[in-house]
Amino acid sequence: MQTRKFGGGGPQVALIGQGTWYLDRADRKAAVAALKRGIDAGMTHIDTAQMYGDAELVIADAIAGQRDKLFLVSKVLPSNASRRGTIAACERSLKRLKTDRLDCYLLHWRGSYPLADTVAAFDELIAAGKIRSWGVSNFDADDLDELLDVAGEGAIACNQVLYHLKERAIEHAVIPWCEVHGVAVVAYSPFGHDDFPSPSSKGGALLQSIAEAHKATPRQVALSFLTRGPAVFAIPKASRADHADENAAAGDLKLSDGDIAALDKAFPRGPKPRGLPML
Ligand code: NAP
Questions:
Q1: Using a 6 Å cutoff on CB, does residue 18 contact ligand 1?
Q2: What structural domains does the chain harbor?
Q3: Is 38 in the pocket of ligand 1 (CB under 6 A)?
Q4: pLDDT on residue 117
Q5: Is the CA virtual torsion 165, 167, 168, 170 positive or negative?
Q6: How many angstroms is it from 247 CA to the middle of ligand 1?
Q7: Mean pLDDT, rounded, for 233-248
């Protein structure tokens, strides 16, 4: 599993991590086994959120006894993101995850509380040792500009955003912004949530032929394409251990310039949309 620095001043983090949205809807034993298999295969970045029902409880079962090797991330809902509410939400997540700290804590999307209040809460959580760093999710470049004014250079660890082969909007402004300011980009729904290119489509056939040339799979090719830039990580969700194994192996796949050019053509970036797409 390749690793890279998480933002400007962060630790080395696995390129491919594990999402957990809807993991609580899967068979509990299978979900815990999938997470554990993923961790064993190097997907030590685990992403969750207050919003994901009981996913934090599933994770607690999977990470027991191996907390120190993980990069554990959770998120506060915007409706809780006041100064006091953020701290209370973090404490609830820590309890549910059965841990004493998060490696990164995110504002799930921008809501109505002033960014300064949420940032003040994040700073307080860092001072108390309850989080190691903080970031945001679903922030467009203009939101990031405002956040930078509040927090200052070097404070924002990451921006977690929608990014998959059929949705490349963040390449226009968000990725360039994050590269300039040392902010990690975390690609969520890297398989399009449930919209992965079908093998019978033109793009799907290309994925298959590139995969065959590398003795890999189409999904591994997709993950490798998405994480080709220096700031990008991906967090596919898998509730099956064999899926976790497959996804983790993408962290060692290197595509050629020709592969990347062909994928770029088959899944065009498209024009810059007015707003940032999100799920
Ligand atoms: P995704 O990772 O794009 O796709 C998940 C789907 O792909 C599941 O149906 C899963 O099936 C399947 N899958 C995974 N690996 C596979 C494999 N190797 N072969 C075949 N199928 C495979 O979707 P996502 O869950 O929306 O996104 C990933 C994570 O990003 C989330 O879980 C969450 O942590 C995060 N996220 C964040 C936000 C945000 O606003 N910040 C929004 C959406 C998502 P199985 O479950 O059966 O393995």
A1: no
A2: 3-266 (3.20.20.100)
A3: no
A4: 98
A5: negative
A6: 11
A7: 98
Task: Provide mean pLDDT across the span 262-268.
Answer: 98
Q: What percent of the chain has pLDDT over 70?
A: 100
* Mean per-residue pLDDT, 184-204: 97
Reported as half-sphere exposure (CB side, CA atoms, 13 A), residue 83 has a value of 5
Q: What is the pLDDT of residue 228?
A: 98
Q: Which amino acid is at 228?
A: R
Q: How far is CA 13 from CA 19, 57, 69, 71, in A?
A: 15, 23, 10, 7
Residue 79: pLDDT band (50, 70, 90) is very high
- Check residue 8 and give its pLDDT: 87
* C-beta 140 within 6 A of ligand 1: no
Alpha carbon nearest to ligand 1 atom 21, residue: 243
In angstroms, rounded to a whole number, what is the distance separating the alpha carbons of residues 160 and 9? Answer: 17
Q: Which ligand 1 atom is nearest residue 192's CA?
A: 3
**Residue 256 identity (one-letter amino acid):** S
- The pTM for the full model equals 0.98
Q: Which atom of ligand 1 is nearest to the CA of 23?
A: 46
Expressed in angstroms and rounded, the spacing between residue 157 Cα and the centre of ligand 1 is 22
| Cα three-residue angle 46-50-55, rounded to 5 degrees | 55
Could you identify the atom of ligand 1 that is nearest to the CA of residue 242?
18
Residues marked as catalytic:
52
Q: What is the pLDDT of residues 123-178, one digit of tens each?
A: 999 999 999 999 999 999 999 999 999 999 999 999 999 999 999 999 999 999 99
Nearest-angstrom CA–CA distance, 262 and 28: 40
The helix-helix angle for 115-127 and 141-151 (nearest 10°) equals 60
Give the mutation target among 174, 219, 237, 246 for probing the ligand 1 site: most ligand atoms within 8 A of CB: 237
